[in-house]
Amino acid sequence: MTAAAVVGGRAAVVCAVGAALPPYIVSNADLTARLDTTDEWIRSRTGISQRHVAGAALSTTDLAVRAGAQALADGEPVSVEALVVATTTPDRCCPATAPAVATRLGLNGIPAYDLAAGCTGFLYALATAAGLIVSGTVRTVLAIGADRLAALPDPEDRRTVPLFGDGAGAVLLRRGSEDETGALGPVVLGSDGTGADLIRASRFGALHMDGSEVFRHAVDRMTTASCQATAAAGWELGDIDRLVPHQANSRITAFVARRLGVPDDRRLSDIAETGNTGAASIPLLLARSAADGRLKPGHRTLLTAFGAGLTWGATTFTWPGLSAAATPPKEAGHDW
Ligand code: COA
Predict the structure, then answer these.
(1) Which of 200, 186, 207 is CA-nearest to residue 123?
(2) pLDDT at position 325, please?
(3) Domains of the chain
(4) Ligand 1 pocket residues where CB is under 6 Å
(5) pTM higher than the cut 0.85
């Protein structure tokens, strides 16, 4: 499915980003001390060197609040009219995360809801945010991806523990016009429930994943969705200045870039520092890349993601050059 991101010339325009990482870092060396694995195995198979872990100190709500606050502080002052949190690891089954996040951000009273689409959650959040904006329902939406995936695996499982980290990222969208820099292009979304068992967890500590099947689907789905989103935007694949893929595994994202014909120096990555942070990974990578200059105003940017469900998605926009470009992801402390 391709969700139209422009109605009557109205578009959703990216106007601020924010991100938060827990301060506690687990290195590969920390893992080799307690699991039958090596730094070399983890880095060569995944590209991961370390991950930030929230543990018991920070909740998904805490991380989402911190990322949202950074986006609101760094963007131009706007009044946020709706908030969506994409997460697969909410603090509670009920109620949703978003109302508490809204209240703690001083936005009490606005519509606020969660959605779950695995590691594709942030793209689903962007699509619903854009829908609210272009339909004329609201003028501004804060879209947050927040996950604590490090808590999902069995702590003894060497096949899954090294892969995951915790974090949150946020993007503020406002109503604008389709010809503005930062206007979101059409959003391609899809799902395939026949693959529901390939990544599944009934509770924290009970993650099951069929790694090689997931790898194959991730490459195929992100490549296809990327081609569709690029075409829907009226771009050629050669137009892409920056590929911002969900940080599942650096080998997966390298395959996707190769299949798309996107040169490797245009593929952004921060998985070495963060591991797979689920719905947070794309906005985290946007914030980090804007801060360190890999993402510059005018860059034609392609986002793509894949995750449990199975789910996948992709969209495009031109990086607008935000004040947040000076701000790297913040570490979330206990005061949040
Ligand atoms: N350290 C050392 N050995 C490990 C290991 C670790 N951390 N994890 C697995 N192994 C072993 C396996 O036990 C297996 O050994 P065996 O052949 O004796 O049984 C061997 O390495 C190969 O395992 P396999 O699962 O085939 O490895 P792989 O090359 O497919 O890599 C993943 C495993 C998980 C890194 C890879 O499949 C992957 O990245 N999949 C996608 C994961 C993902 O992105 N999920 C989220 C999607 S949003």
Answers:
(1) 186
(2) 42
(3) 2-177 (3.40.47.10), 187-318 (3.40.47.10)
(4) 37, 41-42, 45-46, 119, 158-159, 162, 209, 211-212, 214-215, 218, 248-249, 252, 276, 306-307
(5) yes
